[in-house]
Amino acid sequence: MLLGKELYSYKNQGDAKHKEMKTLAGVYIKEEVEEVNESGQTLHPFMLIFPNKRRIYYFKDKDEKNKWITAIKQAIGYSNLNDFYELGETLGKGKYGIVKHGFHKRTKKEVAVKIVKKRDLNIKDLELLKREIEVLKVC
Which CATH class is domain 2-78? Predict the structure, then answer.
């Protein structure tokens, strides 16, 4: 059961008392590859990556899995570049990263997307990148 930003687990369906509660603060979500169990049934998993552990949740139905992923993403305020843009070929490479050709999924507007690895930047480079972002906001 998902209540706000807390995920409650129960041993059996219909139990009044939960087995454990996990807060979704600082959680990342990762889709996993479908698996087939020993009885031949296809399972649809996803992983929640907590600050100190990982948990995989399995679903018998792909639609049910997608409903949970959507609800959890909404609860944690998750957004991903790939949720909004379809990326294509690389247009160029620069000091800070790469630029890819892309399309906005909803509007189909053609865009160039710059992808930067922030952890590789020193303080001076970070300031230059911030200035570039401010200039692009004006354009």
Answer: mainly beta
**Helices and strands in the chain, H and E counts:** 3, 10
Q: Give the three-state DSSP class for 139.
A: coil
Does domain 82-138 match CATH 3.40.50.1110? Answer: no
Would the pTM count as exceeding 0.70? no
List of residues 6+ apart from 110 with CB closer than 8 A: 101, 102, 103
Domain ranges of the chain: 2-78, 82-138
| Residue 2 CB neighbour total at 10 angstroms | 13
Query: How large a percentage of the chain has pLDDT more than 70?
Result: 100
Q: Which of 25, 14, 30, 86 is nearest to 51 (CA)?
A: 25
Cβ atoms within 10 Å, residue 7: 23
